[in-house]
Design a protein that fits this description.
The chain has 5 helices and no strands. The protein has 107 residues and is mainly alpha-helical.
């Protein structure tokens, strides 16, 4: 889930994003940027990052200032794939419970 939301969130600081635009200003494009561009029609359905988060009920992964609430420390994808901190399991469970409540509350 985190690796899904991270590439979408990279440009959230710039404000609402136009998914039909490339979002890319530099000549070098990351794989995340290429994917966002390739699926721009899909992301355009949500209008902005908040719409994406709301549609997939990911509010519990985002803080008040629109940063990602990671389950284990994040170091630009350099941390081990298998978490070593004991808080990971509890944070995962907390997220699942919170998201399930959001799902249950849907009309």
């Amino acid at each position: 889930m985190k690796l899904t939301i991270r590439p979408v969130a990279f440009d959230v600081a710039a404000g609402p994003w136009n998914a039909s635009a490339a979002i890319i200003q530099a000549s070098r494009r990351t794989n995340s940027e290429k994917s966002l561009d390739r699926y721009s029609d899909f992301f355009a359905l949500f209008k902005d990052f908040d719409g994406y988060v709301e549609f997939f009920l990911l509010q519990d992964l985002i803080t008040e200032d629109c940063t990602i609430r990671f389950f284990h420390p994040f170091d630009n994808f350099r941390t081990p794939a298998v978490p070593k901190n004991p808080e990971y399991l509890q944070r995962s469970r907390d997220f699942i419970r919170a998201r399930n409540k959001r799902i249950d509350a849907q009309p």
